[in-house]
Structure formats: structure tokens, C-alpha cells
Predict the structure of Beta-N-acetylglucosaminidase.
Amino acid sequence: MSQHRRRVPAKKVKRRRAVVVTAFAATVALGLGVGVWASTGEDSAARPSGGRAAVSADSPSATPSGTRPSPSRSYALSTAPSTVPAVRTHAAARGPGWRPAHAGRVVVSDAELAADGKLIAGELGMTYAGQKNDDRAGDLRLALGGSDGADPESYTMTVRGGRVNISAPAAPGVFYGTRTLKQEVHGGGTAPEGVVRDGPAKPVRGFMLDIARKYFTASWIEDRVRELGDLKYNELGLHFSDDQGFRIQSDTHPEIVSKEHLSKAQVRKIIKLAESRHITVVPEIDSPGHLGAVIAAHPDLQLRNTRGVATRGAVDISKPAAAQIVDDLLNEFAGLFPGKQWNLGGDEYQALTVPDPAASFPQLAAAARKEYGSGGTVSDLATGWLNDRADTVRAHDRTMRAWNDGFLKGTSVQPAKDLQVAYWTGKELGARQPVEYLSTGRDLINYNDEFLYYVLGQPNTFVYPTGQRIYEQWTPRVVRGTTAVPAKYDDQILGGTFAVWCDLANSQTQDQVAAGIRMPLAATSQKLWDSRRPTRSWPQFKALAGRLG
């Protein structure tokens, strides 16, 4: 990936984004003090009197239509929430709305939601009361429920009668409802009467951080986890092994670990915090390239050509010891990272960039012929390496992805069928369009380096991405460059990931990185949650994100 990496989702999820459309009309306010919701599971009870046609809650304005609600001497029809990402639908109603009170309770209907209940109670200054069956004025109730097969990340929030109800098919959806509520009452705002029905367009919404080239403190990473949770991201990728460093404590090979690194205790704390935000931490140990930190401690494993010249970052994949040390690390860190996703890397193996790999590296050509017959090539051997590493990780019941330039063209050996494509570049060997990967039936995660790559120092023509460009021009179907793939492949595009690569590590401090990615993360969140063209202008969205902090 041009001297840097880019970033696995779980099994392909069939997204059911059907939104029950109840009647209403609303004017969407751009300020903060507006909207929240919850669900009783009874659509009729959630409808405002008189009934209204549902509209997108992202719309800055909506014209009332249909039968008007019963007149109210006290309350105007509520306006839709103003959140990042925007909620998908809001059915307006008349009423005073809801504000958290210090004496108010957060109650749950299921013990599984205790952690989510305690978190939002602390954030809103309320009392967590645990499982309760009674209802009191001012309550916030969290509950599990919904139709069979519903998206586990969807939720319904209803504000009615001085109470808030959030329900979802699974805990992640409940958590996302609490994020919407938290934003709505941010700074003393009021959650308006009405019902929100919400859920993401894509099941993979990720942020990837290159901690191999640049050391980031554990507290900085934890701050990003909190930020990601509030923006409804569900993945944090950690690229922790590369030529410049190996940044997590290793017990099997302590000799490869950089002086500045995270301890396993620190990583466990990050993982625990991420789990509390329903975020999966996705590890990456890239191979057979980008292994310079390993080679520094094991120079005998470095790939050399016929003249004895070393190939930067590449191990000699004809040597069984190279496979053994990588498998040792994969097995060790599978025990540290409990999530189901894993990035195998597989990109930029420099042996394949020379005009004649077999002539430059005859030991690789000989190993390929031995393994795959007289027609075996160095590309076949590299693909076989990727498949062998997939076997190692698959034994830990993981879903795996690899960078698109790790899927080599014209090989007799094919990459494992269960590998997902982490598509970042159109500059790989063979320069294949995304459709060439999608047409084989593979799932794909979008890391488009044109929009989603924040590369420190802006080397190799990279330019820091802006939130505005992402917001106005990118969608998950824009996988390479600025052109979208055909809509028929939409279900195979599981989502996207915004990536920070630290090629020129000292170009920015970690605080400058945090400031630089804030708006791009907000914009990416919006487009992964709702891929449709936003109706808020960029200035409106930017102002809203700024107020929400």
C-alpha cells in the first residue's frame, strides 16, 4: 500500500433496512435541543394523533401533509433529531419532550443491557436503577425486542408521556439509541416527542490506526474509542506490525518488540472499552511484506536476490522458519484479540515488483515448482503463503480479510474463498477494477485511498482527506477513485474504513492527528450509516458536528 497499510468484518450480513413508515410531518431543526425516541413495540401507540406520513429525519424541512394532528394549545409539532450521523426517520408528535433529571432513573428490561444502562446513566447524570417493571415519570427505559431477523444494530426510540423508551433486537442497537439520545440532550437540550426508527446502511463502519510506524499512547487510543462509539462506528483496526516497529508486547517473540509499545494489559483495557461501545478491535500482522521489525531481530529470514541484496521488509517465503515465526505471532495474538475479524495483510510483497521475480529470486521459483509443479510461479508461492496464514487464523474461528493487492492476478493458486477484499488502491500489480473482485462473489470493505486515507506527511501524492469531500462525493460504492461500482454489487460492499497511516511519523503529533481526522470521521460516519445523498449542506453538517463536539 505505498509503504503503508490500509484495513474485517464478520460474516456477510443481510441488511434489512426497512423502515416502518407512520404518518407525520416535521421540520428538522439544525440546533441541538431536539429529538429522542423509544419503542413500546406498538406502532399505533407511537403515532402522533391524526397520523402523518413518515419522512427522512435528515431532511432540513418537511411539509405537513395528510390529516392534521389534533390541535394543541400547548405544544407545536415536534422537530426531528439533529445528530451525527442523522437518524433515518422520525415520526413527529406534540408534547413537552424529555430532559434528563438528576433524580431520574435509567431502567432496563434485560440484564444484558446493564452495561449500556450504566454508561448512559453516568453520561446524563441519572441514577441507574437496574431491572424494573414499574414506570415512573422521567424514566429512560432500555429493552430488547423486535421482529425476528431484524438488523441487530437497528433501534426504535419513543419519547412520550415524559418518558423515553429505547428498544432494539440486540444490545448494539440499544447502544446506538443511547448515542442518539446523548447527542440530543447535549448541552441541556430536550428530546422531542415522537418516534425514531433508525439503523445503519452498512454493517462495517471502521477506523484503522497504524500504530506500527508511530507510537500512540493508550489513553489517546481510548479517547478515539469513545469518539468512535458516539459516531456509531463498530470497528477499530490496529496495524501494529510493520518495517518501522512492532508495537504490542509479545511473549513468544519478545526480541521483535519495539522499545515504545503497548503492554498486553493496556491492549486488554482498550479492548474492554471498545466492547463497552460495541466496537470490535481488528488486529493486523501484515505478511509476507512489511515485516521489517521481525527481520531486524531475525536477519537470516530476509529475502535476498541473486546478488545478495536484501529486499526491504520482505521475508524469504521459501524458508519454513519465516512461516513459523509469523504463525507463532498469529496464534499468540488470536488469544489477545477476542473479536471475530482479522486482517492478514498480504500486500506489497516486493519480490513481485521486479521485472522477472524467478530470475531475481531463484530460491522462490524453486520452492514454487516444488510445491505446485513445473508451472508454479513466485506469485503462486505468495498466494499459497496467504492461504497458509489464513489456515492458521481460521483455526481460531475468525473472519479474514486481505488487502486487494494481495489477491494476485494470473495465478494457478487461488486465494481462499472466504477471504474478504480490503480494497484500498487501483495501483496494484495488474491494476484491476473493483468489479473484478466483486464479480467473483467476494465481499469487499471499502478503504478507498482517494477519500479515506490520512497519510502523515502526504507522501506519494497523498493529500489529507477532508470531511467536506467525503460528505459531498463519497459513498460506500465509490471503491476506487471517484466512480461508483454498479448498484447490483451494493450488498457485497460490507462497509468502509477510514484509515490513518503514519508513513512520515513525525509530520504530526498525535493531538494534531486527532484534530485532523475529526471532521473526516464524522462525514464517513454519516455516509456509512445512510448512503443516500444528505439533505443538509456541508456548512450545516459541519456546524452541527461542531456543536456536538
Notes: The two ends are 33 Å apart (CA to CA).
